[in-house]
Amino acid sequence: MSKELTRVVDELGREKGISREILTAALQDAVGAAVAKRIGKYLEPEINIDLDRGEIDIKIPKEVTEFGVTNWDELSMEDAAQYKEDPQLGDMIMVPVTLEQLGRQAALVSKQRLMERLRDAEKQSIMDEYQGKIGEIINGTVLKMERDNLVISVGKTEAIMPRKEMIQGEFYERGKYIRALLLDIRMNKGWPQLVLSRTHPNYLVRLFEAEIPEVFEGLIQIKAAAREPGERSKVAVYSTNSSIDPVGACIGVKGSRINSISKELKDEKIDVVEWSQDPIQFVCNAISPAQVLLTNVFEDEKTFELVVPNDQLSLAIGKRGQNVKLAAMLTEWRLDVLNEDEYQEIRKERMQEQEHELKMLYEIYNLENISSLDADMINKLREHGIDDVEKLSDASVDEVAGALEVSEDIAVSIINMGIDYLTARLEDMDEEETEGDGAEEE
Questions:
Q1: DSSP 8-state code for residue 381
Q2: Which of 18, 147, 317, 366 has the most other CB atoms within 10 Å of its CB?
Q3: CATH code, 224
Q4: DSSP states of 320-374 as a string?
Q5: Using an 8 Å Cβ cutoff, are 87 and 153 in contact?
């Protein structure tokens, strides 16, 4: 029984990738549990396991007794003489036993404990092997479709690929070889579950590293990637070596390199663009193949306004908006694309708005709004650089008194008039704005 048990454990270890040290410890723990079931947990047995020889040596302590043996932990004087010369009453002698002698219940306990330990060891083996491979490509073989998950054999364990991580329209035949990105390791009912993806942008990045030597060697860097899986993607590349054309190197002669990657992704169209530290240049590269005539940057809104020729608007936007969407994902900017005619109309409206705002500001900040100032006083203030109400409110008493050639008391009075007027007007504007926002909500 010992040889059979060690053989089964050894085979399981090879199949599951569990080291012999862990197997030995698991078997020792299982046998220890069986012995404890038979003799109690307070006695200390000796257990030695040799997987190479297929041997399990068990010795349990027994007390030499004068009377007849009634318990498993007792040994007669006659039997004790087999293991110790001149035994004495009360001596504790280590007596060898076999697994069979421990009994059926002990064997069941041993089997249960062994399976628990082997399962824990297998779980740890999977974690040790794959934890460091998250974000890398792994290979496998398609087993079956189970609900919304594709089950894939990846050597010593199985992985799943959820439907959202599959390229739409791709057919996964049983037994088919498959490559995918190890996206995550999740615990499912206490067991590590490998999650794969063929749609994640990093899968495209890893394919570049695998298929393009310059990328693998670090001569070309992948700065960003964006995908519409199975349809179109954009990859931003950069090289610190001026003698290397990063875009050309990634595409290859007659598209040989990029075509092999595209084929792996169900003929996904891949645009390779050059990354630039200058956001404007990078955005212009990303929106290719359309030509950009003009850019406006709105930093607060993290938005680029791109103006393209009239006949290139559809090219810039792309089929179902794919080109501009991918460019926005790649650059992490919001992109508004306009043709020349649209931009001219918008520009005209903006200029009118600006003129209106300037006119309003002039009317609000005009010194003529301060009733105590006549034309001569206004001219004197303007000659000293105090040409609007805001500057008057911020001016010092000495500045106003010197410009108008008046006393400090009069200067203070004029400054206070400016402050009071400006405060009242700004409060009125805030109220009008609040009322306007309320009307829009209704």
A1: H
A2: 18
A3: 3.30.300.20
A4: GGHHHHHHHHHHTSEEEEEEHHHHHHHHHHHHHHHHHHHHHHHHHH-GGGSTT--
A5: no
Looking at the structure, tell me whether residues 38 and 90 fall in a common domain: yes
Domain check: are 205 and 98 in the same one? no
Residue 110 belongs to what domain range?
A: 2-128
Position 441 pLDDT exceeds 60? no
CA distance 109 to 115: 10
Tell me the C-alpha distance between 192 and 126, whole Å.
7
Is the bond into 289 cis (omega within 30 degrees of 0)? Answer: yes
- Cα(144)–Cα(167) distance, integer angstroms: 16
Residues linked to residue 188 through DSSP beta bridges, in sequence order: 191
Cα separation values, 83 from 46, 75, 91, Å: 15, 11, 11
Q: How far apart are CA 33 and CA 93, in angstroms?
A: 21
Q: What is the number of domains present in the chain?
A: 4
Q: Which residues of 348-367 are buried (b: 16+ CB within 10 A; e: fewer)?
A: eeeeeeeeeeeeeeeebbeb
Q: Give the distance, in angstroms, between the CA of residue 370 and the centroid of all CA atoms in the same chain.
A: 61
As separate numbers, helices (DSSP H) first and strands (DSSP E) second, the chain gives 17, 15
Sign of the torsion formed by the C-alpha atoms of 352, 353, 355 and 360: positive
| Concatenated DSSP letters of 262-289 | HHHTTS-EEEEEE--SSHHHHHHHHTTT
Contact in structure between 62 and 95 (CB atoms under 8 Å): yes
- Which residue spans within 21-133 are E strands per DSSP? 46-50, 55-65, 74-76, 92-97
Q: What's the whole-number average pLDDT of the chain?
A: 86
The structure's pTM equals: 0.68
* Residue bearing the bigger pLDDT, 100 or 414: 414
Distance CA 75, CA 95 (A): 9
Query: Alpha-carbon distance 203 to 238, whole Å?
Result: 19
